[in-house]
Amino acid sequence: MNNLTVTTSSASYPVVVQAGALASLPAHLDALGLRGVLWLICDGAVEARYAVPLAAHLRAAGSTVHTYRVPPGDASKNPAQLGELHTWMIAGGIERRDAVLALGGGVVGDLAGFAAATILRGVAVVQMPTTLLSMVDAAVGGKTGINHPLGKNLIGAFHQPRLVLADTDTLASLPPRALREGWAEVIKHGVIRDAGLFGELEQLAEARGWSESAPGGLWDPADAALTTVLSDLIRRAVAVKVAVVSIDEFERGERITLNYGHTVGHAVEQLSRYGLLHGEAVAVGMHAEARIAQHMGICDGDLVGRQAALLHAYGLEITLPAYDVDAILALAMRDKKVQAKKIRWVLPTSVGAVQVRDDVPEELLRRVLQA
Ligand SMILES: NC(=O)c1ccc[n+]([C@@H]2O[C@H](COP(=O)([O-])OP(=O)(O)OC[C@H]3O[C@@H](n4cnc5c(N)ncnc54)[C@H](O)[C@@H]3O)[C@@H](O)[C@H]2O)c1
User: Fold this and answer.
1) What value, to the nearest 5°, has the Cα angle with vertex 314 and ends 197 and 350?
2) Catalytic residue numbers, as ranges
């Protein structure tokens, strides 16, 4: 139903976003010709709830399934953990026709994806994201990898999945804060490329009167109508990522637009020593960067206000913590978007459209970040 498709020069694959989608995995694997042994990788947060029943479902459909659980958290994206996964698969007799199944948030997706990219010079991987953040971002687009002591995500490979299966029912067990941070990326996708999505998010916030109650628990499994609406919104946000990576598989152009809010956001995330979650930092970054755009004269105050109201409505803070502006700028200069010592800012021009600018005066930045 309403499936999306990523199409790049190296691959084409379906992206399914639907309540109950995990039940359809055996049929999808069959349709893709993935009939080898399945190497299911998950973390402790999803094992009992989703991995165990999924493995039983696959076995009932005739598959051989091996399961590996990694500890939850970003620290699992390390070379030793990767090595253990390799050993597990090699010792278990993995063959080229087998497939890795990544079930979990972005940590499991990145780690299992990189294990799949590197074992036997690459086996198939299916991404099954279980956090809102990984549904709308990490699981789609083929970026896989682990961290290095000198920085996050520095070791990795592009390895496109054969299928992305996002079961929105799994969001019911996500802690409210993790759900909230995911909404930041959903809203970001509206701002950069889909004014209709932005408008629908506004309408829903208004209809549900969420703004005062900071809707951490806005996923109510008992409310079928609401979960259907939310699933549709998530699918629409995923469609933005699908469109962008289909244009720019290897991050040479269009993909930079996905980094809206991330230049200030990454700096704030680091200055908070990761006390702020990624999506929370992105929300702060989006507000700061929209204000930069406003001061540059490329968007109006209406956009800044609507975006701020929407972020608030989905429970996100937008106030920049009182960090030293020099520290923010120093970290922004280390951003991956810096080219020829200039920061390339992704700035909104209107809801649904952005511009990349490398001519933001430092004095303007200081003024906005200090205010
Ligand atoms: N590859 C990419 O393009 C890309 C893009 C963005 C982020 N990332 C990476 O993604 C990672 C962040 O992803 P994340 O936010 O999903 O973090 P995560 O994988 O750490 O998940 C967040 C927490 O939620 C738990 N969890 C996951 N699903 C759950 C569920 N359904 N119910 C209950 N608990 C659940 C996890 O165990 C974890 O504790 C980072 O490592 C980041 O670098 C990658």
Assistant:
1) 40
2) 121, 143, 185, 241, 251, 255, 259, 262, 266, 278
Cα-Cα-Cα-Cα torsion 17, 22, 23, 24, nearest 10 degrees, comes to 60
- Alpha-carbon span 220 to 63, nearest angstrom: 33
**What count of other Cβ atoms lies within 10 Å of the Cβ of residue 204?**
17
Phi and psi at 35, nearest 5°, equal: -115, 10
Inter-residue long-range contacts of 360-365, CB under 8 Å, 24+ positions, other chains counted: 360/292, 360/296, 362/329, 364/292, 364/295, 364/296, 365/292, 365/325, 365/329
Q: Enumerate the domain spans of the chain.
A: 4-173, 176-370
pTM beyond 0.90: yes
Q: Dump pLDDT digits (tens) for 220-277.
A: 667 788 888 889 999 999 999 999 999 999 989 999 999 999 999 999 999 999 899 9
Binning pLDDT at 50, 70 and 90, where does residue 150 land? Answer: confident
> Distance from the CA of 83 to the center of ligand 1, in angstroms?
20
CATH 1.20.1090.10 applies to domain 176-370: yes
Residue 342 carries which DSSP code?
Answer: B
Is 176-370 in the same CATH topology as 4-173? no
CB 305 within 8 A of CB 290: no
How do 151-158 and 143-148 pair as beta strands? antiparallel
The burial class, CB within 10 Å (0-12 / 13-18 / 19+), for 348 is: buried
Pocket-forming residues, ligand 1, beta carbon under 6 Å: 43, 45-46, 72-74, 77, 104-108, 110, 130-131, 133-134, 137-138, 141, 143, 152-153, 170, 173-174, 178
**264 closest CA partner among 303, 296, 305, 292:** 292
For residue 113, which atom of ligand 1 is closest to its CA? 1
The model's pLDDT over 118-133, given as tens digits with 9 standing for 90+, comes to 999 999 999 999 999 9
Query: What atom of ligand 1 comes closest to residue 108's alpha carbon?
Result: 19
- CATH classification of 4-173 is 3.40.50.1970, yes or no? yes
